[in-house]
DNA sequence: TATTTCCTTTAGATGCGTCTAAATCCTCGC
DNA sequence: GCGAGGATTTAGACGCATCTAAAGGAAATA
């Protein structure tokens, strides 16, 4: 009934709404999806007609309950696929996104069910993003600390790294900064740079923009750096984590 | 570069070409894809412009080498997906087709590689259809015996059951007629019906139309019916089999 | 407050894939 | 060898998703 493109718009609006709050601007969606503003305006009209969003002219849009449900469905497909690709087809953490984007509109409900079952109904994907439940219940979008919020001496565990830049994800993957990784903040430079010690003992410096996209929670446990984590095996979501991407 | 729809046309032309021979009629493609003849004519024009097929007006079309390569690529995706779904996601033999159709245009080369690897580079899919090799070398389309070619007393092994009717496949699956199954022909009725004994000892009667879509080879080995086969584990293609679907 | 600047929307056009209706061509039977 | 019937193609239209160019509204600044 809905086209792939419409699903993409709903997903985009949902994501922007989740991070930046309610009325979502035409230009924000245009930039997110790589379309021109008139194209977006035109699609807003169609989605409004179908009752998937509400529009206040020149102000922006907001998803209706129905529109949000569609977005959650697509997001569930996306994140289940990411988890599956990482776990069963040996995709690296940074590679999963594009493949999931390509497939998310085309899998059947049956496929969704079976993938979820094989994975043991995971609650987070390899980036630490929460996977909507099968009943597509709304997700609670609490604000979580980011690495950028912390100062020297703080010890944290990475919970989520959501970013659409594959290169950035690749870099972090190589640096050993993944969901589940423990980090010690060893320096905060005044010009927008955070330096952390990873579990392996290496030090990594990250620009603020990157640090701001790394969600963390305070670490409680042993001090020194052992060999605790791996890539994406925390698939039961026991880190008290929250939505956004 | 090519749209999903174009790929579908090329695949359809390839399939028809493989079974019914060279110039493929507009109407044949129209029926195969559920489109009207003018729509097909129009698409033939576009595919010709791109050098993917050759057209003789009012006669029909034939794929160029390039067009055939595209068709083989799509078919490789399709059949690898079918094999993967059956083997790793617990799909039944009759369910795989539709899901593979939906996904075949959207998987990356990387995905293709990894699926092939996980499956151990299978040469046939769960229906017994040959999977094009990674280099997309042309497939040799020999004619194989069908169940309908055989008479009372013949003992055969099913090599391929290619059909687009899900219900028919479901029926055969329940009847225990699958690639690898041994069958004894016990009766051939004059009004278009073949009766076979399956490995389990059950007798099944099948109309000629169905018998004609079941490819077989003569059975050489022990007589009686044991418990040899399963559903789709003959994925190395050791049955000397041939193309069509 | 007036103006400038930026954002959004309207207007109009394009390419794709599809359709129906009508014209054209091929072939088979007489 | 001619005509009838069936297949194919042309003609013309439509909906979708997109664009560029131009017009209109909102908000910030002077």
UniProtKB/TrEMBL annotation, chains A, B:
Chain ranges passing through the membrane: none
Chain intervals for the UniProt region annotation (Disordered): 199-245
Residue ranges of every copy of the HTH dtxR-type domain listed in the record: 2-64
Keywords from the UniProt entry: DNA-binding, Iron, Transcription, Transcription regulation
Location in or out of the cell: Cytoplasm
Molecular function in Gene Ontology: DNA binding; DNA-binding transcription factor activity; protein dimerization activity; transition metal ion binding
Predominant localisation class: cytoplasm
Name this polypeptide is given: Mn-dependent transcriptional regulator
Protein family per UniProt: Belongs to the DtxR/MntR family.
Assembly and binders: Homodimer.
Pfam families: Fe_dep_repr_C (PF02742), Fe_dep_repress (PF01325), FeoA (PF04023)
CC annotations in GO: cytoplasm
PROSITE patterns: HTH_DTXR
């Amino acid at each position: 009934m809905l086209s792939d493109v419409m699903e993409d718009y709903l997903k985009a609006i949902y994501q922007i709404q989740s991070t930046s709050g309610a009325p979502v601007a035409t230009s924000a969606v245009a930039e997110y999806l790589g379309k021109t503003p008139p194209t977006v305006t035109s699609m807003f009209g169609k989605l409004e007609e179908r009752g998937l969003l509400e529009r206040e002219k020149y102000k922006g849009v907001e998803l209706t309950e129905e529109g949000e449900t569609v977005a959650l469905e697509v997001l569930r497909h996306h994140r289940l696929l990411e988890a599956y690709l990482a776990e069963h087809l040996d995709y690296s953490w940074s590679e999963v996104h594009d493949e999931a984007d390509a497939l998310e509109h085309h899998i059947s409900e049956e496929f969704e069910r079976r993938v979820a079952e094989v994975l043991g109904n995971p609650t987070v994907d390899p980036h630490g993003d929460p996977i909507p439940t099968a009943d597509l219940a709304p997700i609670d979008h609490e604000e979580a600390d980011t690495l950028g919020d912390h100062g020297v001496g703080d010890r944290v565990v990475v919970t989520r790294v959501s970013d659409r830049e594959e290169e950035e994800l690749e870099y972090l993957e190589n640096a050993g900064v993944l969901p589940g990784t423990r980090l010690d903040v060893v320096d905060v430079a005044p010009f927008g740079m955070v330096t952390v010690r990873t579990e392996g003992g290496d030090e990594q410096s990250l620009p603020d923009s990157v640090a701001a996209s790394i969600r963390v929670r305070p670490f409680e446990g042993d001090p020194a750096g052992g060999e605790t984590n791996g890539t994406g095996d925390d698939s039961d979501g026991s880190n008290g984590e929250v939505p956004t991407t």
